[in-house]
Automatic annotation (TrEMBL):
PROSITE patterns: RADICAL_SAM (PS51918). It comes from [Clostridium] asparagiforme DSM 15981. Its cofactor is [4Fe-4S] cluster. The keyword Iron applies. This is Radical SAM protein, TIGR01212 family.
Amino acid sequence: MDWNQKPYHSLDYELKRRFGRKIYKLSLDGGMTCPNRDGTLGNRGCIFCSSGGSGDFAAQACPDVWEQIEAAKARVRRKMPPESSAMAPPSPSYIAYFQSYTGTYAPLPRLRSLFERAVSHPDVALLSVATRPDCLPDETVSLLAGLNRRKPVWVELGLQTVHEDTARFIRRGYGFPVFEDACRRLKAAGITVVVHVILGLPGEDRERMLETITRMADFSRAGLIDGIKLQLLHVLKGTDLADYYQNHPFPIFSMEEYIDFVIDCAELLPPELVIHRLTGDGPKSLLIAPSWSGNKRLVLNTLARRFKERNTWQGRLSG
Ligand code: SF4
């Protein structure tokens, strides 16, 4: 299998394979909250969640999606190397990514106008919505299925762990069967499903984390998920996890431990499953631990070197 020199089935590779060019992500904010924050299930959010609700890099919420798209495009262009930023990417070359809080937690008419506006933008190639599996009633899935016939729609679900005791501890607010049901309904509607998993949660040793990965590998083989984001747990200022960490210090990965472990995880996953992320980057201004994760370049370089040194992934593919 040709991964274009990448040691795993990366999101970048998948987007180039599908669209024939590089596709950029625009982080948008639908102005929603989350049942873990508005009092429906709780007021304090998941234990690790910062007040930005996983959308600390998203555009400021504003009424018009196209305005947000233009502002986010300008931010992306500023980060490109000078030779690329001089020319606008060919259209469409962007993912409209509703990242903040729970991206489907609004009445259907509001979701319809928000997502239709995003999909109708000529520069948008794909709609991606991060949400919770307990916020996907059938009518929302139908709306997304309709949009998926116009442009590809991805739904990202924050599972974090398959273990119910950890899920209760982090105050996730739904059980594993709810996640499984959402995957089945989304896939039956033809929608691409991406799952988020957090590595390093308190009370989760290597064996328990590998159980989550193995279960997601089974989900992939059963056609219930298409992609996975592996996120390193970040302890962020202002979260309940920060208080817990101060009062009950729990093991935090060193960079070397994490990189070797995340490669172990990648090797357990079927090659067809798209790996969207192997680390995760929280906002540096809020980061308490692990401090090494703030050095993104070092982490990515070390990851690439360890993949090369181990060479097991490529060996498995050619073997
Ligand atoms: S469900 Fe998402 S947005 Fe809501 S508290 Fe948890 S991590 Fe934050």
